[in-house]
């Protein structure tokens, strides 16, 4: 009974861990896709600068294709582990343990290989101004769209201040994406009437903060560490369950409720004690002995023996 209770407890814990693997893997994929969209915008604005290299070093461990593939594979492995735990299948559980071990080694190697502290300074933000003169040109529509998307999403304007657009381009006012309330011609109206309608913070500090790390990146790091700890725990529980199931099948417990076989009623019953030899020769099937005193005594002994048996 103690071994059966332990096996039941191990199975419940593995069910919970597999469910946790599904949830955390889905969260990692969702947050990575969210970060990747903003990262592509930053990489477009910081192309061929030190900021681009720093952004790649910071976010490559989080959005690396290997990590994304590992999370997808972990979802499949968790399903196999759930089925193996449900059916107590030694083969599926062994495959589950081996897959978790391989995934853990890949994650650890990828984290060590891609980890590097980015070297970026605030003075590097000035290099972003070199990307501004091409704004609005026909052949750089992709750059124009990137600037507008970044300024709208991060609520900033220019590199240091919105006047950077007037210094680095031939524009008379900033783009409409600098407005807090955007509509066609809002930047022109704000430039001549109310500058407070424009975003007052530059995009340089926003990019610097993004490269140093965002809340989404911190969430990804926390999820990565949590998945690693859960994998170690799942492997330990799987080994314990495999040991319990294997040795439970090798040496089954004896059934303590088994009763001894009943006595054979077909064997002749012989009574060795009695006052006469006639009584000793009577059996239960002889009707001629029922009226004698010896027969009545014989039946009395027979009744007591059957009751005791």
UniProtKB/TrEMBL annotation:
Protein name per Swiss-Prot or TrEMBL: Tetraspanin
Disulfide bonds, paired cysteine numbers: 156-186
GO BP, one annotated term: angiogenesis
A single cellular component GO annotation: plasma membrane
Region (Disordered): 253-309
Recorded topology in the membrane: Multi-pass membrane protein
Main location: membrane
UniProt entry keywords in alphabetical sequence: Angiogenesis, Cell membrane, Disulfide bond, Lipoprotein, Membrane, Palmitate, Transmembrane, Transmembrane helix
Compartment(s) where it occurs, according to its Swiss-Prot or TrEMBL record: Cell membrane; Membrane
Record keyword ATP-binding present: no
Membrane-spanning intervals of the chain: 12-35, 62-83, 90-115, 222-246
Protein family membership: Belongs to the tetraspanin (TM4SF) family.
Signal sequence bounds: none
Organism superkingdom: Eukaryota
UniProt cross-references to InterPro entries, sorted A to Z: Tetraspanin/Peripherin, Tetraspanin_animals, Tetraspanin_EC2_sf
């Amino acid at each position: 009974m103690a071994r059966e209770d332990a096996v039941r407890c191990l199975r419940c814990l593995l069910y919970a861990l597999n469910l946790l693997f599904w949830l955390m893997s889905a969260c990692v994929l969702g947050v990575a896709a969210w970060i990747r969209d903003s990262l592509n915008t930053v990489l477009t604005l910081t192309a061929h600068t030190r900021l681009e290299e720093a952004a790649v070093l910071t976010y490559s461990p989080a959005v690396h294709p290997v990590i994304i593939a590992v999370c997808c594979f972990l979802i499949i492995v968790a399903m196999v582990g759930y089925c193996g735990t449900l059916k107590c299948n030694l083969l599926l559980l062994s495959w589950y343990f081996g897959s978790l071990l391989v995934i853990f080694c890949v994650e650890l190697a990828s984290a060590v290989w891609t980890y590097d502290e980015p070297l970026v300074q605030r003075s590097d933000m000035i290099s972003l101004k070199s990307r501004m003169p091409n704004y609005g040109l026909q052949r750089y529509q992709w750059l124009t769209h990137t600037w507008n998307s970044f300024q709208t999403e991060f609520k900033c304007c220019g590199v240091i201040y919105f006047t950077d657009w007037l210094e680095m381009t031939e524009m008379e006012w900033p783009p409409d994406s600098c407005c807090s309330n955007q509509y066609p011609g809002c930047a022109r109206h704000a430039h001549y009437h109310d500058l407070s309608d424009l975003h007052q913070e530059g995009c340089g500090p926003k990019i610097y903060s993004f490269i140093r790390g965002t809340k989404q990146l911190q969430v990804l790091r926390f999820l990565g560490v949590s998945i690693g700890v859960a994998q170690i725990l799942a492997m330990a529980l799987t080994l314990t369950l495999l040991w319990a199931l294997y040795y439970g099948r090798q040496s089954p417990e004896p059934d303590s409720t088994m009763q001894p076989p009943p006595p054979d009623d077909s064997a002749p019953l012989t009574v060795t004690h009695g006052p006469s030899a006639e009584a000793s020769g009577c059996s239960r099937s002889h009707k001629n002995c029922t009226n004698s005193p010896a027969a009545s005594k014989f039946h009395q002994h027979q009744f007591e023996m059957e009751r005791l048996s």
